[in-house]
Amino acid sequence: MSDPIFKKIDVVGTSTNSFSEAAANAIAKAGETVRNISWFEVIEQRGSVMEGMVQQYQTTVRIGFRVE
Amino acid sequence: MSDPIFKKIDVVGTSTNSFSEAAANAIAKAGETVRNISWFEVIEQRGSVMEGMVQQYQTTVRIGFRVE
Amino acid sequence: MSDPIFKKIDVVGTSTNSFSEAAANAIAKAGETVRNISWFEVIEQRGSVMEGMVQQYQTTVRIGFRVE
Amino acid sequence: MSDPIFKKIDVVGTSTNSFSEAAANAIAKAGETVRNISWFEVIEQRGSVMEGMVQQYQTTVRIGFRVE
Amino acid sequence: MSDPIFKKIDVVGTSTNSFSEAAANAIAKAGETVRNISWFEVIEQRGSVMEGMVQQYQTTVRIGFRVE
Amino acid sequence: MSDPIFKKIDVVGTSTNSFSEAAANAIAKAGETVRNISWFEVIEQRGSVMEGMVQQYQTTVRIGFRVE
Amino acid sequence: MSDPIFKKIDVVGTSTNSFSEAAANAIAKAGETVRNISWFEVIEQRGSVMEGMVQQYQTTVRIGFRVE
Amino acid sequence: MSDPIFKKIDVVGTSTNSFSEAAANAIAKAGETVRNISWFEVIEQRGSVMEGMVQQYQTTVRIGFRVE
Amino acid sequence: MSDPIFKKIDVVGTSTNSFSEAAANAIAKAGETVRNISWFEVIEQRGSVMEGMVQQYQTTVRIGFRVE
Amino acid sequence: MSDPIFKKIDVVGTSTNSFSEAAANAIAKAGETVRNISWFEVIEQRGSVMEGMVQQYQTTVRIGFRVE
Amino acid sequence: MSDPIFKKIDVVGTSTNSFSEAAANAIAKAGETVRNISWFEVIEQRGSVMEGMVQQYQTTVRIGFRVE
Amino acid sequence: MSDPIFKKIDVVGTSTNSFSEAAANAIAKAGETVRNISWFEVIEQRGSVMEGMVQQYQTTVRIGFRVE
Question: Of D10, F3, J40, K36, which has the highest C-beta tally within 10 A?
């Protein structure tokens, strides 16, 4: 059987600047230990608030990578 | 009964630049009248278009704050 | 019958910078051939990854325009 | 910051005639105390039944209005 | 154990006039054989088309009734 | 291969009277240019508000038609 | 054909104590008349309120049982 | 009132071969006792596993049939 | 117009014991300031964790009450 | 602006054999008139029934293709 | 880059008593091998039935923990 | 505490033949390294297209296995 197989894991990245950067941070962190990441899907976007201002953008990404 | 209680309200922020800034604007506005905001969840992202270009990013956030 | 009628189409924009720019790119492209676009809804946000870093942000927008 | 901000509230209107009238009743009631309502979204449609016949149509609308 | 118990069944009513009447027809039909119906929830609204015009409105309702 | 194939398109009809009429208007408009429409599914119901009263019912229908 | 077949029915149990007991009550009631129940899925949790206090927990369970 | 009325029931078919056959088995079983079945909708696809291999495909179908 | 109108608000109750008690706490708190509460719907169940054990159950309830 | 843009269209394929073949038929038909199709997503699986047996598998696919 | 990163994993806890205890059991088990768990989200509630009575409550929780 | 605990992981299987085989391939691959797999749930079905024909069926399965 040689059909490719992939796994997906959920990672929450955070950023003080934007949801896009939060997603990028999640990917960068996962990329340190997971090989062959090829795509991600945004599952959720949330954030924390401090004194009435956004403190942190939080993006949950579902990351897909090929299993060797 | 001393278990904390929170309320959630839906606010739509807008921005000419990005969905993240639209969310931040919604939080900032809510923060003028609501105390103890601690988090938000993105519920919807939309936008208006003028002459074939994005005119306004609109982010609906559900804002959570502790009730005293 | 003079009640206005609108159609919706799904377009996926991409960007190397952000989900917001990816959405704007989708709108700009659709605006080249479709007239009277008035709004869009974000349906999905995904991305591609290369060597452990985000390579491309992908935003699927549902674009609404009036039918003349 | 001058980007417009909107709030959304959920109201359940009822009617003995139709879901559309139930929605209209919800809007009319909200309009008595809330200014600048500009749109609504149907969230849920239910009804009560008495002796095997529809007694009441119930439409939950999410009402959007601009915050001044 | 005397806590009340309810059952739910899905019925599709149809009408040539409106979604509300289609729902009412579903309830009326169910009421012929099921006792103690107390509420319904709209699950789906569809319709059939003939020669470019709506021919039939179809409303799927989930009907709740008390089990004696 | 003779298995029938269908396409679906999203159209938003509007009406000052009801969601059902808004759906009918969407179908009627689509029927002017699309042949073989056989069914529709309600995807979304919204509306616009003017001076605290419903101004326009908006029904998004997904229209299915056979491809010849 | 000997592959097993199952049916699912929706039952709403109620309890003055908890959602878990409400689910158990729904199962117990269904078990009086349905044989071979093997699993259930929680579909919805609601409740009624009297004088500002929870009066009744309501759990809708989808009950699966083998058809002989 | 002569508008047709339909009911829907949920049945889980199983198969050792495929999800499609599991659906067909569910329909065939329902057809033994229910008349006038005209359509079905796939609600869920699951399966059981034995020693690291798929043992059984399970397809939940919602079956629609006209009530006479 | 005398058809009854209801509003819904989202409240998050918490408890160190159970989701049911968390919901009850949310209702009890809302009941201090809101009159005519008649039902609630569970929207979300979450929790916080401390040193590998559940510290707090959190239930978000959507509370419905009649507007006078 | 050279970021790639894609469009998505919804097509319903049918087959007397399986959901997979129904999807393949939808793609094959779309491929006759649309260039650069690169992926599809399954949106819905339904079927028609005749005399208590599956008559037709129906798979709705959302087809993505690059816009040149 | 010092923005915190979290991972999420899905765990199904079981209990003979309640959904809340099932969730607590899932957290307790995960806490044996995963450090820095800070929150969980309830994804699904199901159960098994034996002789017409609930045998086991099953709660699927999505567990979030900080990646160091 | 002896109540059983399960974990779930998401795996994407692929096949040139069918969605069912793609699911089976995902399970077979997971079974090489994970013990005690007992069930799976289909989360998503997609595919890739080459020259207007389906090239690869992709089935995302959520796999449940007991933790010892």
Answer: J40
Measured CA to CA, the distance from residue J61 to residue F24 in angstroms comes to 26
Task: Give the Cβ contact number of residue C55 at 10 Å.
Answer: 14
pLDDT of residue G68 exceeding 60 = yes
How far lies H18's CA from each of H24, H55, I12, in Å? 10, 10, 43
Q: Which residues of E touch H43 (CB under 8 A)?
A: none
pLDDT digits (tens, 9 = 90+) for C2-11: 899 999 999 9
Q: Encoding tokens for residue C43?
A: 């349906």
Instruction: Calculate helix-pair angle for I19-33, K19-33, nearest 10 degrees.
Output: 120
Nearest Cα neighbor of L25 from A36, A4, J20 is A4
Residues of J in contact with F3 (CB under 8 A): 13-16, 22, 25, 56
Whether residue L5 is predicted with pLDDT greater than 80 in this model: the reply is yes
* 8 Å CB contact of D17 and E20: yes
Fill in the DSSP letter of residue I17.
Answer: S
pLDDT class for D47, splitting at 50, 70, 90?
Answer: very high
Residue with tokens 């989360």: L43
pLDDT number for residue L58? 98
Q: Look up the pTM and report it.
A: 0.97
Query: Within its chain, how far is the Cα of G19 from the centroid?
Result: 10
C-beta of residue C12 within 8 angstroms of C-beta of residue C58:
yes
Q: How many residues does chain L have?
A: 68
Cβ atoms within 10 Å of D24's Cβ, excluding its own:
23
> Nearest-CA distance from J5 to chain F in Å?
20
Within chain I, how many helices (H) and strands (E) appear? 1, 3
Q: Is the dihedral of CA H29, H34, H36, H38 positive or negative?
A: negative
Place of tokens 């995302």: L60
Contact by Cβ (8 Å): F17, F59 = no
Tell me, what's the pLDDT at J33?
Answer: 95
Q: Which residue is closest to C66 within chain F, CA to CA?
A: F12
Which residues in chain G are contacts of E62 at CB distance < 8 A? Answer: 10
The total of other beta-carbon atoms located within 10 Å of residue H54's CB is 24
What b/e readout covers L29-56, taking b as 16+ CB neighbours within 10 angstroms?
bbbeeeebbebbbbeebbbebeebebeb
Tell me what the mean pLDDT of segment C26-34 comes to: 97
Task: List, in sequence order, every residue forming a beta bridge with E62; answer none if it has no partner.
Answer: E10, E41
C-beta of residue B58 within 8 angstroms of C-beta of residue B14 = yes
ipTM summary value? 0.97
Q: Which residues of F touch chain J, with CB atoms under 8 Å apart?
A: 1, 3-9, 62, 64, 67
Centroid of chain to Cα J27:
5
The alpha-carbon radius of gyration of chain L (Å, integer) is: 14
Question: Which domains, from first to last, does chain C contain?
Answer: 5-67 (3.30.1660.10)
